[in-house]
Design goal:
The chain is mainly alpha-helical. About 3% of the residues have low confidence. Bound molecules: zinc ion. The site of zinc ion has 7 residues, from helix 6.
């Protein structure tokens, strides 16, 4: 095998735009254009250049996730603003209307509403507004259990992190109003 076959010359043409860009970049890198091009190829062959991700679906998913996070942040800001302005939490029905509807799956849905209404001393389901009341401590303990069962049976989900921590911390403090 001759020298030329072992060390072939590659040649190709670049259009005006890419040629201009190549000249600019090689100047920035303080290299002759030819060496700069070869260095890019060397990096690519060494695995140091990673092709740009072009998976449209992945890009779309990321956009949707961002949109969902933005909607949730706006919603929380609105809730906080309401609390600051009126000194009381938003009503459950208003909360239900304003709550972001961009929810992909049950697992990623974040329930950010406390199920406990401290003013009336009752537990309320944030999804269907069903109330859980009690007269005494026995009923209180039973209703906490009922609430969890209600979520499983009626809404097909486990308690959210917030719901669980609220219920865990909740102690009997008298009958519901
Ligand atoms: Zn419910």
């Amino acid at each position: 095998m001759g020298y030329n076959e072992r060390n072939p010359i590659f040649s190709f043409r670049l259009g005006e735009y890419r040629h201009g860009k190549l000249l600019r970049l090689s100047k920035l890198n303080k290299m002759p254009a030819n060496d700069f091009l070869r260095s890019i190829l060397d990096q690519y062959l060494a695995g140091d250049l990673i092709p740009k991700a072009k998976d449209d679906l992945a890009v779309e998913m990321t956009k949707l996730k961002l949109q969902k996070i933005k909607a949730e942040i706006e919603y929380l800001q609105l809730k906080n603003k309401y609390m600051e302005t009126f000194g009381a939490p938003m009503s459950t029905s208003a909360t239900r209307i304003l709550k972001p509807k961009i929810t992909t799956t049950q697992q990623t849905t974040q329930i950010t509403i406390s199920p406990f209404d401290a003013k009336n001393n009752i537990i309320q389901c944030c999804e269907c507004s069903q109330l859980f009341r009690w007269e005494n401590k026995d009923e209180f303990l039973q209703q906490k259990f009922e609430f969890e069962r209600h979520m499983t049976n009626n809404h097909n989900r486990a308690l959210s992190y917030l719901e669980k921590s609220v219920l865990d911390d909740l102690r009997f403090s008298g009958a519901s109003l």
